[in-house]
Fold this protein.
Amino acid sequence: MIQTPAAGRGAVWLGGVLVFLFSLTPLVAWLGPLGFAPLAAVCGLAAVWALRIGKADRPAAIAILVMVCWAVVSVVWSPYQPAKLGNSTAAKLMAEAVLYWAMFRAAAGAAPASRALALKVLAWGLAAYGALLVVEAASGALIYRSLRQAIGDPIRPDLAIKNVAQGAFVLAVLAPAGALAGWRTGGGAWPGLLIGAGVIAATLGLAADAPTLALVAGLLAGAAAYVWPKAAPRVLAAGAAAYFLAMPWALAAGWKSGLLQQVEARVELSWSMRLGYWRHAVDWIGDHPFRGWGLDASRMFGPGITLHPHNGALQVWLELGLIGAMAAAVFFAVVLARQARAARDPAAAAAVAAASAYLVMGAVSFGVWQEWWLAAGALAAAACLALQSPSVTERP
C-alpha cells in the first residue's frame, strides 16, 4: 500500500506525540505522578483523530467497554455519590477509556524514525530518573526538598520521601520497556542498570518495598515468556484470570483454615493492615457477589477499609461484582495471551514483564480507578507497543 503525504504527516504527528509523552515521563514521575493523568489525556486528545480498534484488539476493547458501562450503571446503587461531576469516577472512566486508548495506539501509528527517537528518549530519561532516585534515597529526598523550598512551598522531610517514593512505582512498571528500549537504541545495558538501581534504591532508602517486589515478579514473568515464548504467556494469562476470579474465595479459604490469621499476626504493620482490609472486603463481597456494591463503594466502608481494599481484584469484586471481575479477567488474560510467540521475542517478553509488574503492584497498593495509575498503565502499554516489531504489530 502506497503511503499518501497526508498519512505520512499523520505518522510524523503521532511520533511527535510519542516523543512529547516519553520526554515528560521522568519529570512527572519525580515531581508528582498524579500528573500522569493530565499528561495521558493531553496526548490522547492529540492522537484521538487516529484512534483505531483493530481486530486483534477487540477482545481487550470489549472488556474495557463492559467494565466501564457496568461501572457507570452501578452508580445507581452505590452508597457513594460524588458531590459534583468533577469528582465522578464514572465520568472520568468514560473519558479515560477513549483518551488513554488513543494514546496507546499512537505508538503503533508513529513514523519509524520518530518512534525510534521516542524510545531513545524514554530509555535515557528513565535512566536519568533512576540515577536521581539513587541520590534522593541516599540524601532523604534532598533535591526534591530543595526544589520545593526554592519555589516557596517547603515540605516536611517525611512527606518529601513519601512523594518521591511514589514515582518508583511507575518506574518499576516502565522498567522492562525502558531497559529494552535502551538496548535497542544503542545504550547497551546501562539504561536498564540505572533504572533497576533507582527502583532498588527507593526500596532501601525511601521505604517503598512494593516497586522492587513488582519489578522482580515482572522480570521473572518476562524471563519465562522469553524462554518459553508460546507457553509462558498463556500460562500467565490463565493465572491473571484466576487471580481476578478466585481471589475472594482463596482468601476466605485461608482465613477459614486459620493460616492467614497466623500470617497477619507475624507480618509488619503495613501488611497486617492490608490483610485487615482484605478480610473486611471478602466479608462484604459475600453480600452482593453478582452486582457488587457499586462504583466507589469502597470509600464508604471505613474504618474496616480505608478508601479502597489495596487489592485490585478485591476492589473490582466489592464494587462491580462478578461482571466486573469477569471483565478484568478477560482484559488481562487477552493482554498476556497476545504476547505468545512461535519464537523468542524480547519485546513480547518486556510486555509480559510490564503487565505482570502492574498486576503485582495493583494487588498490594493503589486503587483500581485512580486516574494517574490507569494512565501509568496505558503509558507502559504504549511503550511496549512502540517496541513491537512491524511483523508482530497490527498497524492502525
